[in-house]
Structure formats: structure tokens, C-alpha cells
Automatic annotation (TrEMBL):
This is ATP-binding protein. Pfam families: AAA_28. GO terms for molecular function: ATP binding. Residues 6-169 form the NadR/Ttd14 AAA domain. Signal peptide: none annotated. Keywords: ATP-binding, Nucleotide-binding. The keyword ATP-binding applies. It comes from Flavobacterium alkalisoli. It comes from the Bacteria.
Length: 178
């Protein structure tokens, strides 16, 4: 049985969480976005926006969390495991803010590989900020560009998910899995 570790990516506010939540309802194994937990933990420690205040620390915590998710996904009994974002997302965000990072980040992108990458493109009609999302619409589009560039640079062929209902997006994704 070939294990499929499938990543769903996209800039802020593209519907990733809605797709992941619906996949969970349909019985699929899905791992949540690591950054929300890292952000909430930092707030419990009195740091309002860890990504803005200490971007390298934030990114190191994300990298460790995403490496653990990848390792855990390999141990799942299910043939397909979905992840809300992958390791190259960390580098894409570092590129977005113009910050440097240790070579271990690049090494992790090469070592931990995913089966398929589904990209949810920027979609202004559904974009809305929330408590963990500080980016405006223009910034969200730039982040999406960095995601596409970063994943492509690591040799991934991104599958763009059409702007459609959550159910139709899921049908599209499932239709592209073996």
C-alpha cells in the first residue's frame, strides 16, 4: 500500500481550513495547521504576535512541528493523510518577510517529501482576517506567490484547486489521488 501524504497549501483566507474540516467530517485523517497552536502558545506566554516579534523562533517551532507531523503521518494506518501546510511553507513565509534562515530549513525541505501538493489560489470573495491572521488582501496574494515559488523550487508540481464550493473542491482533490 502506497502511503499518500497530501499537503493543502494556499495564502491566508483561501479556504484551507474549511476544506480540511470537511475532509475530517468525511472520515479522512487530517493534521491541522501548526502555526495556530504555536501562536496561541506564545500568547499564553505573553507574546502577542510571535511571527512578527521573533520570526526565526516562530519558524523553528513550525519546522519542528511540521517534521513531527510528517513522521506521524508515515505511521498512520490510513493510506491517505492530509496536512494543512507543509515544511516548504516555513521557507515561503521567511522569503515573504525577507528574513534569512539556517541551512537546516532547506535540508528539511529536501528530506521530508510529500506525495501531492494542492494549491488553493487567492480568492478575494472569501478572504477575511481573523485573530491569528494579520495579513491584508495584498499581503495574502504575495504570500501565495511565495508559496508557489518555494514549492516549485523544491520540485513539486502544484495542483491548483478551482474556486468552488467546499464539497466540489474536495471532490476535485479526491479525484486527483490514486
Amino acid at each position: 500500500m502506497k502511503k499518500e501524504i497530501v499537503v493543502i497549501i494556499g495564502g491566508p483566507g483561501t479556504g484551507k481550513t474549511s476544506v480540511i474540516d470537511e475532509l475530517i467530517k468525511k472520515g479522512y485523517i487530517c493534521y491541522p495547521e501548526v502555526s495556530r497552536e504555536v501562536t496561541l502558545e506564545a500568547r499564553r506566554q505573553g507574546i502577542e504576535q510571535l511571527f512578527l516579534e521573533k520570526p526565526l523562533l516562530f519558524s523553528e517551532l513550525l519546522l519542528e512541528g511540521r517534521k513531527k507531523q510528517h513522521a506521524d503521518a508515515l505511521q498512520e494506518e490510513s493510506r491517505i493523510v492530509f496536512l494543512d501546510r507543509g515544511i516548504p511553507d516555513v521557507l515561503a513565509y521567511m522569503h515573504y518577510i525577507g528574513d534569512s534562515y539556517p541551512s537546516a530549513f532547506d535540508d528539511a525541505c529536501k528530506e521530508y517529501r510529500y506525495t501531492k501538493i494542492f494549491f488553493l489560489p487567492p480568492w478575494e470573495e472569501i478572504y477575511s482576517p481573523d485573530e491569528e491572521r494579520y495579513e491584508n488582501w495584498e499581503q495574502a496574494k504575495l504570500i501565495a506567490d511565495h508559496l508557489v515559488e518555494t514549492y516549485t523550487n523544491y520540485g513539486y508540481n502544484l495542483i491548483e484547486v478551482p474556486k468552488d464550493t467546499v464539497d466540489n473542491r474536495i471532490l476535485f482533490i479526491l479525484g486527483h489521488l490514486s
